[in-house]
Automatic annotation (TrEMBL):
Pfam families: SIR2. This is protein acetyllysine N-acetyltransferase. Its EC number is 2.3.1.286. Keywords: NAD, Transferase. Gene3D superfamilies: SIR2/SIRT2 'Small Domain, TPP-binding domain. The lineage of its organism: Bacteria, Pseudomonadati, Pseudomonadota, Gammaproteobacteria, Alteromonadales. SUPFAM superfamilies: DHS-like NAD/FAD-binding domain. Signal peptide: none annotated. One of its GO terms (molecular function) is NAD+ binding. Residues 1-237 form the Deacetylase sirtuin-type domain. It comes from Pseudoalteromonas citrea.
Length: 237
């Protein structure tokens, strides 16, 4: 039995990576504005691949060289599931963490969800920013007909209209939740499915939880301890 940590965007904010629902604003395609939650979808990738990849590049890939912070270092020897795709936990030395929503530094073939596919190094270093859209389409092997199954590439990221599969280690994540002696949620708004899955398992198995956040979300559970503070303040208590 061990403590399981589940982290969200608040943990990486100190490294200069904005939270997903923070100050992203809107993305305009044609005359229509889209929220980040509408942009980060499989449907958008298929319908507007150029705009999707440009948005993804600006929103995530530009932070690929940022470094981990003190919280990532503290979590390096912990059992960890992160919602973040920035890879900072790996940079900090955690060799077994689960990146439940994917990783910025990897891509996969565009595939039917649930298919067994390999992960490859993302070609961000090959991008020509002078011709950003064309360069991204070429690197991701997307032609005029849009992404082709098992031919084109897709960022290794779980999009809002996709579901958890073994590509994202959902089975191992649930196993770790069931065997945890305590679950600590750090810097998460509880607005994604993985936190709800963890909370449901905690309730079923009477696992105590802690919620660490400057503005902690209150949940319906009688074995919860709230820490109204940042993750950095929590680890330095």
């Amino acid at each position: 039995m061990t403590t399981l940590y589940i982290t969200g965007a608040g943990v990486s904010a100190q490294s200069g990576i904005p939270t997903f629902r923070g100050t992203d604003g809107f993305w305009t395609i044609g005359s229509k504005n889209y929220t980040p939650q509408e942009m980060a979808t499989r449907a958008m990738y298929q319908t507007y691949p150029r705009e999707f990849l440009i948005w993804y590049y600006h929103r995530f890939a530009q932070y690929r060289n940022h470094g981990p912070n003190e919280v990532h270092a503290w979590l390096a020897d912990k059992q960890l599931i992160t919602q973040n795709i920035d890879g900072l936990d790996g940079k900090a030395g955690n060799e077994s963490y689960i990146s439940i929503h994917g990783r910025l530094d990897q891509i996969t073939l565009f595939h039917k969800q649930g298919d067994d596919v390999s992960r490859h190094v993302a070609p961000w270093h090959e991008v020509d920013e002078t011709y950003l859209g064309d360069s991204l389409l070429s690197l991701f092997k997307i032609g005029t007909q849009g992404p082709e199954l098992n031919q084109s590439f897709k960022p290794y990221v779980l999009l809002f209209d996709e579901y958890y599969t073994e590509l994202y280690q959902i089975g191992l994540a649930e196993q770790q939740m069931r065997h945890a002696s305590k679950i600590v949620f750090m810097g998460t708004s509880f607005s994604v499915n993985i936190t709800q899955i963890a909370l449901d398992i905690a309730r079923q198995r009477s696992i105590p939880i802690e919620i660490v956040d400057p503005e902690p979300v209150h949940v319906l559970y009688d074995q919860v301890q709230y820490h109204q503070m940042s993750a950095l303040e929590y680890i330095n208590r």
